[in-house]
């Protein structure tokens, strides 16, 4: 059996790795000329680490990544709202949460594939037993299947991401009115960070945008100002935050399936985008592993849709809700009281 995968990101490469291990012939068509070499840290939660374990890649993830240390969520005035107890997660699941740079995760998946699996600089073309659209938030495969009605909606927020060459002792997130700032150790001497603000009315040059971020976050509690001052304006990555709405009625049409952001573009507020893309790929490969006829393929894709659509859409909804709560302009006192109470009740 042969699969054609459109998109060589996390979802596409994970699907390719799973199907290759199951004995399928796989061709990945990636329109970029090479693997992406930009991007900041990604949180790999225990479910994603287990998924990589099934591909034989968990040990290499642990080598390339860093365990996430316990951290804290604070207000912009320094008051603590909740603790992020990653030690508790490890005790409960038997696995750490890891932070790994996006290029490292892509390279890890790519290196697990047979030579010639990924074809760079090509759009998805040709026939196969199954077509998988893993072509990201602006998916052409999704648009072809469902039209423009199921499209991206703007949150009105923009995120600036980066990595600085200095370490922080622990991870954390700071919430303010219509803004937030997060940071986490990427290695002992490198820190991943992101800053979220309302989208400016016009795009500015890198130096001006960096100055604007410093003006907004410069008086927030440490290490926020220190991290931001060390950021290189020319290396800041800027993206508008979007989500897919309305949710898709299915991730499958005929012998075509959607995976990753193509299926469930979500805001990054729960740190689950990369994890869910990996799980999509692994689940899709599991379902298709024993398919040997066109009827088998259709049944396998229906099973994939049954297993993945509802969970990922619930996570996307929760991420969007948390994004609204964490960057609320009004009612922050009530929000903070609820967050503190939830933290106490959850231990």
From TrEMBL:
Entry keyword Acetylation: no
Alphabetized InterPro entries for the sequence: FAD-bd, FAD-dep_Monooxygenase_BioMet, FAD/NAD-bd_sf
Residues annotated as domain FAD-binding: 3-112, 122-317
Keyword field contains Signal: no
A GO term for molecular function: FAD binding
Keywords, sorted A to Z: Monooxygenase, Oxidoreductase
Protein name: 2-polyprenyl-6-methoxyphenol hydroxylase-like oxidoreductase
Highest taxon above the source species: Bacteria
Cross-referenced Pfam families: FAD_binding_3
